[in-house]
Amino acid sequence: MSSKILIVDDDANARMILSRILTKENYEVREATNGKEALEIVGDFKPDVMLIDWMMPEMDGEQLAKWIKNDATLRYTYIILLTAKGETKDRVRGLQSGADDYITKPAPHQEILARVESGMRVRALHSEIKQLTKRVAVLELAATVGHEINNPLNIIYLALDMMRKSLKQKEYDKLERGFQLIAETADRLKEIARKFIELKDPQTTSYVNKLNMIDIHKKESDKQ
């Protein structure tokens, strides 16, 4: 799957030139004439890199960059601002708005490609970190579930074994105790399930083999 780039510029010639340069490098390119039109595209297109002209009607590049970075699903989109403003204060302002890079017009084609490639590498790194974070979260959840339900399950197995022996030996008091143990353990498992369901701000604690697990017993008041 080719990497995706959205060009946002009200200058048709500028869009055409950028599109040709990037398409030749096998990028999937789409265009928008201003910030508002870009917002209609980004949700479905989800570009890896955006080349945004600063000065545009309706919504300029600075406003668009701020909007993108405030959207949880788009905040890691790599934004390159394109502008004729070359003073340091302008570059700082552009970066403070949320842009990741800044190109002063007119820029050589090779510089544009180099900046885009750099953005793609950063974007790929964000994706790798996101996947790694997911894998770690799954391992922590698996360790937590295994730890929390292992002991109750052992109690149930022991109670069932006791009940089998009690039936053979007609020791009905022990049979009743077995029923009681299973009922108590079922309540414990239900309480564990409730804590998982109500978990809002997971905190981890160290477990065996340096593996972390989620602390489902820590109260919200204890976290503050």
Account of the protein in words:
The protein has 224 residues and is an alpha/beta fold. It has two domains: 4-107, 3-Layer(aba) Sandwich (Rossmann fold); 132-223, no CATH class. Helix content is 59%, strand content 14%. It contains seven helices and seven strands; from the N terminus they run E-H-E-H-E-H-E-H-E-H-H-E-E-H. The protein has helices at residues 12-24, 35-45, 61-69, 88-96, 109-169, 172-197, 220-223, and strands spanning 4-8, 28-32, 49-53, 78-83, 101-104, 204-206, 212-214. The chain starts with a strand and ends with a helix. The model has no long low-confidence stretch (mean pLDDT 82).
Overall 3D form: rod-shaped
Give the full name of the CATH homologous superfamily of the largest domain.
Response regulator
Largest sheet: 5 strands, parallel
Low-confidence stretches: none
CATH topology of the largest domain: Rossmann fold
Overall structural domain count: 2
Cα-based radius of gyration, to the nearest Å: 29 Å
CATH architectural category of the largest domain: 3-Layer(aba) Sandwich
**How would you state the average pLDDT, rounded?**
82
